[in-house]
């Protein structure tokens, strides 16, 4: 569990949000102008800046100050075209760079089209790039309006579709939506309804208070307390925050906005001469042609993304991988992940961030595997095979025989091969499902049927319904499957890891 401290509760204890749970369950922040929404978002972004990749959709240019302190890349959307923005989004996903998309210089219609194009570019990334990504959208009611307004219908359709994809289908692609809005009533319901975590700030309109109370599971007579919240106070609820509505006050931040909060200042004193000068007719100046602002070439922006995405380790800090066996470190971390019940059925792309984080906690500045290597090692680890096992001649031969086995079926093939080598019973569908990373036994049977059609494995069933598996290219066969005598028991008895 990775807790990010947002502030303090009413009792003075620290109030935190579980980052890993947030990535799986999304967040909705609501509050009138001046309630502290942007401050809350800035606190969240600052606290988890080094833990997860971030993308901020910023309609007012408030978050570009993150660039100097935390290394985010500020993208001025007004300088680029639609095709270029889509290319930048794809490169951001590939290089895992944290960016702020500044929409300040665009008209509302252009803001919607640009945000929709950028979000769709993140959403359409290929499967191997589905790393965890925190996507923060400020003023979400602009990009996912509840009703058609004065904006162009096409721009609204593109933006609303992208926001719906982010909140409804983004989780499987590693996208964790964090959306903030001034008014719940103006935010599309199908977008707001997908959030499981809520931080509700001060609001005054009855319709917004009632919707906020409904989302928090409060009785309507309790909704009045939302009107009494102070600036920076939020009611929190959700699996990543609290099981019951909890009041918290957001802590301080390290960066600020480019503008200043309006404050009272003394008015100037005018003399009679000053008053008369205000009424004096001024000559009309001839228009002076202004040189158009030169946009940063998109090639230059794209070239900055890879270097900003990965910070080099401090030269004075030795990398643990230089002083210990990388395979031993990978095995130790992989064993912890396989033993974690919460990670049992999660895909490799979602677990890779956890793997790299665990490696850093062990002292390694860089992970022993890239994503492709991690996916392969995870499949083998789920089958009970680590470095020492793969060094055995029999398992090395089985691994060579798996050269044309599809990558996602490698773990299952090696599980069956190891059982056949040890003379253990044929793995059950449940055991195969665990290695394959699915709850569906139907999917398992289809996968085994495919492997048999490719002559990777041959199955036979006796009259008692017991299944035997044979690896034709190795000439190895398992014992018949039997109730109460599981593959894992036999492997443990044989001394396997």
TrEMBL record:
Signal peptide: none annotated. Pfam families: DUF87. It comes from the Bacteria. Residues 9-82 form the Helicase HerA central domain. InterPro entries: ATPase_Atu1862_pred, HerA-like, HerA_central, P-loop_NTPase. This is Helicase HerA central domain-containing protein.
